[in-house]
């Protein structure tokens, strides 16, 4: 779930969502690389107990969430503009995740216009 913290601003959110450079892509990939590094228990404990860890984690979480929204929106627009949207959708890397989400997540009405929200 995506949420923003009190110290984030709308301008930062817009900057992430509207960015067209490769800079944020490099940051996103670097975070993925860091996530997969091996780490012993002592190093993990030192990081988890470090000063400001929660704030850093909140910022990283917000960035990854917003950047994922950006990537998914870009891909959705590509699918919609395609001559074969169903084929493109089926080949999208997150498609199986979406199918699983629809099958297993609780769905609740959002408003009187029959909009539904997957929780």
Could you please describe the fold and organization of this structure?
This protein is mainly alpha-helical and about 120 residues long. The protein has helices spanning about 10-20, 25-35, 40-50, 55-80, 85-90, 95-105, and strands spanning about 105-110, 115-119. Helix 1 crosses helix 4. Residues about 5-10 have low confidence and may be disordered.
Number of helical elements: 6
Helix content class: 55-70%
Major β-sheet, in short?
2 strands, antiparallel
Mean of the pLDDT scores?
Answer: 81
The side-by-side strand order for the widest beta sheet comes to: 1-2
What is the N-to-C succession of helices and strands? Answer: HHHHHHEE
Termini separation comes to 9 Å
What is Rg? 18 Å
- Strand tally, please? 2
* Poorly predicted residue ranges: 3-8
Overall 3D form: extended
Beta-strand percentage range: 5-15%
Helix-and-strand structural type: mainly alpha
Describe this protein with a few key phrases.
two-stranded antiparallel sheet; about 120 residues; single chain; disordered N terminus; mainly alpha
């Amino acid at each position: 779930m995506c949420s923003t913290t009190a110290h984030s601003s709308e301008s930062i959110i817009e900057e992430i969502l509207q960015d067209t450079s490769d800079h944020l892509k490099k940051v996103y990939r670097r975070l993925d690389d860091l996530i997969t590094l091996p780490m012993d228990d002592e190093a993990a404990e030192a990081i988890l107990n470090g000063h400001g860890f929660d704030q850093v984690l909140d910022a990283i979480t917000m960035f990854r969430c917003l950047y994922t929204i950006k990537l998914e929106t870009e891909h959705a627009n590509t699918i919609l503009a395609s001559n074969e949207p169903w084929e493109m959708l089926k080949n999208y890397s997150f498609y199986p995740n979406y199918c699983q989400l629809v099958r297993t997540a609780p769905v609740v009405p959002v408003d009187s216009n029959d909009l539904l929200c997957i929780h």
